[in-house]
Write a structure and sequence with these properties.
- The chain is mainly α and 191 residues long.
- The chain has one domain.
- It is 73% helix and 0% strand.
- It is built from 8 helices and no strands.
- The protein is globular and about 50 Å long.
């Protein structure tokens, strides 16, 4: 995948150039990664309520700015970059869910009635927070299992891409994916 010859403005080359201090590489990077970032954001937004504050495009831009501003775009290759972008998107949505959950618990708004939209938002925020908590616990138990979930579920990576990023075999990723799903199911349905 990333081992074949890449054109001069390849994602990996631009990431390396940015890591070496070429700030202009970021201007050339966005057009090359935008479609994939948009697909990642779309995947993250699939489970969100209708009329969510974040649009897919807004989530792409928020994650890209976070990547650039935190100078973590020094990934070694495109798969690491997209894995990082996926994690950023997940974190942005989790932070948003936490804010909504805090408001539900008596934040700054006075409510006179609840409608279906508010109920759906609050239920979704609680689901997202529960999944985030379960993934955090999984990472404490086995970091690689949590990374497999992150890359496969949130990042939409294939088994082969996940194996490449984690530098393990595809068979290991397949086993880890099965273990992680079973572990998460157990934790989320018995707690």
């Amino acid at each position: 995948m990333t081992n074949r010859m890449e054109p001069p403005d390849s994602i990996t080359r631009l990431l390396v150039a940015y890591g070496d201090g070429d700030d202009a590489a970021l201007d050339r990077l966005l057009p090359q990664v935008y479609d994939r970032l948009h697909a990642l954001a779309h995947r993250h937004m699939l489970g969100e309520r209708r009329h969510h504050t974040f649009t897919t495009t807004a989530l792409v831009h928020e994650a890209y700015l976070a990547l650039v501003n935190q100078a973590v775009v020094t990934s070694k290759n495109r798969l690491q970059f997209f894995a990082l972008a996926s994690r950023m998107m997940r974190n942005i949505l989790i932070d948003y869910a936490r804010q909504r959950h805090a408001q539900k618990r008596g934040g700054d708004a006075i409510r006179t009635s609840l409608d279906d939209t508010t109920i759906a938002l609050e239920e979704r925020a609680e689901e997202l927070l529960a999944l985030d908590e379960a993934l955090t616990r999984l990472a404490e138990f086995d970091e690689r299992l949590a990374q497999v979930v992150e890359y496969r579920f949130f990042g939409g990576m294939t088994i082969a891409e996940t194996a490449e990023v984690l530098q393990v075999s595809a068979m290991t990723v397949t086993r880890d994916w099965q273990k992680a799903k079973a572990w998460l199911y157990h934790v989320m349905h018995t707690s």
